Amino acid sequence: MLNLKVFNYTIGEFQDKTLTPDQIKREWIIGRATTCDLVLATPEVSRVHGRIGYDQGQYYFSDLGSTDGSRVNHETAMVNQRYALKPDDIIRIGDFVLAVQGMEKNLETTISNHKILETNVASWTQEDLTVKCIRIIEETEDVKTFSFVAEPAISFAYQPGQFVTLNLNIDGKPVKRAYSISSTPTRPHLLEITVKRVPSPPNAPHVPPGLVSNWLHDRLKVGDQIQLSGGPMGKFTCAKDSNPKLLLISAGSGVTPMISMARWLYDTAGKQDVVFVYCGRRCSDIIMAQELQLMAARNPHFHLAISLTQPDPGQPWLGYRGRLSEQMLSTMVSDFRERSVYVCGPDGFMKGVKTLLGNMGLPPENYHEESFGVGKKQAKVTSPVKLQGSGEQGEGEKIEKPSSKPAIAFIESGKTVTCDGQESILEVAQQEGINIRSGCMQGVCGACKKRKRKGNIRYEGEPDGLDQQEQEEGFILPCIAYAVDEIEIEA
Q: For residue range 453-470, what is the model confidence (pLDDT) as tens digits?
């Protein structure tokens, strides 16, 4: 580990900083940007100014082309030149002085010590968890990143691209909302969500603004605690994708699961070739633009393409302009048909991209989208799952609703409830005090899945949270499932 004392007498700032390498992270970015590992917040410091790296038992400092430059001891640092560090060395960046106080050069010893420290750190489970907000970062004028830790500490284990459900109490009412995790599981002691403020639509001022998103922006403060409902959820992840080529397409706050994937790919030094396409209105709206540009500059396998529909007046923009089109996509990534494609953004954006890619010949099996925020679809009556030999009708066959009220037998709870078929199985369970874990409430995350032993249901929407094997094994999603006749469910 490397111990630094950082001070700036002109503004009275003083801090100790310890940089600890591990098997994944061996370098730290220094600069004015809030995403840097060491933030030096004065105008004389560039947003991304320099870095300290660890390589084969030695720590180095490099200037990354900063505006005002850096000095190591009394020598002006050349751009991208590595300067070996030793105790008592001085790095000068703007008005800041970084003094090297001591270092541990044996990485294996450092890793071993960390393993000893982490033996008592629990892992994230599917239980509800209370976390504490330790940092709030203003990414753009209407987007904030909220950083959370657990006390006592746990290791947040999840797949990049998954989401988490917040269980909040707002004005005395319980509210649940799902948000993509924007942090990466390669940095397991911190969990982050990146949230966009949601105003009422300009053409529909009567529509209420985003309740939870705006509450987080206006009310949540550093030091506050909130509850996470269950563990990580969702199947939108590239973690198990063996395709050597990936295409990540996002718009607006849909970048959040993509940034998690990008950070994970970067930290794990993956060899997959990644094209990251981000569509926005103005340059000032691009979330985490600096970090994305840095990843593209430092990773030859990561290619960034940004398209703006309304470039800022008076500011030059040499990138792509307009909405995603066949010509633009072909220019950005000519081999897109060979890639696994992941898409996230507003509903209309995702529908447009899916149609565009389909018309251009992308194999359907290569397309993946995040849709836990998409509105519910029209109800349909089906019996989509059955156990072997159950004798039930197959998927898609219509079932006539019986004249008598359906009954739901909750086998594990020992309760049988008569209902009118107008409330979902999950709602009926909650009214009877039967605990079924839930998340998105839209049939996407799969958190509430339970096995159905008998009877027919109808779905309001598509059971996207179940794969084909789970459906064949008899699982249903109670959050969007409605009883048609007498059913039995393992709950």
A: 999 999 987 887 787 888
- How far apart CA 96 and CA 86 sit, in angstroms, is 18
352 shares its domain with 296: yes
**CATH number of 446's domain:** 3.10.20.30
> Which of 408, 400, 402 lies closest to 381, judged by CA?
400
Examine residue 152 and say whether the peptide bond preceding it is cis (omega within 30 degrees of 0). yes
Token pair of 211 as six digits: 């309740």
Residues 6 or more apart from 95 whose CB is under 8 A from it?
8, 9, 10, 11, 42, 44
| Backbone angles phi and psi of 61, in degrees to 5 | -115, 140
Q: How far apart are CA 52 and CA 72, in angstroms?
A: 12
Domain that holds residue 54: 2-103
Give the predicted TM-score (pTM) of the model.
0.65
- Number of domains, the chain: 4
* H-assigned helices in 347-400: 347-359
Enumerate residues 6+ apart whose C-beta is below 8 A from 434: 410, 413, 415, 491
Q: Which of 45, 69, 103 is the last residue of a domain?
A: 103
- 263-275 per-position pLDDT tens digit: 999 988 878 999 9
The answer to whether the beta carbons of residues 249 and 343 sit under 8 Å apart is yes
In a domain, 47, yes or no: yes
Burial of residue 112 (CB within 10 Å: 0-12, 13-18, 19+) is exposed
In the prediction, which pLDDT does 106 show? 55
Cα atoms found within 13 Å of the Cα of residue 24, Cβ hemisphere only: 13
H-helix or E-strand containing 131? strand 129-140
Quote the tokens at residue 22.
């591990």
Q: How far is CA 263 from the centre of its chain?
A: 10
Instruction: Look at residue 421 in the predicted model and tell me its pLDDT.
Output: 80
Sign, CA dihedral 113-116-120-126, equals positive
The answer to whether residue 239 is domain-embedded is no
Residue pair 172/250 in contact by the 8 Å Cβ criterion: no
Position of tokens 């989401």?
Answer: 163
Q: How far is C-alpha 333 from the geometric centre of its chain's CA atoms?
A: 24
Spell out the residues 6+ positions from residue 454 whose beta carbon is closer than 8 angstroms to its own: 390, 409, 486, 487, 488
| Within a domain: 394 | no
* Cα distances (angstroms) measured from residue 158 to each of 64, 68, 121, 248, 462: 32, 40, 16, 19, 25
Q: State phi, psi for 283 to the nearest 5 degrees.
A: -60, -35
What are the pLDDT digits (tens) for 315-353?
778 789 999 999 999 999 999 999 999 999 988 899 999
Give me the phi and psi of 292, to 5 degrees please: -65, -40
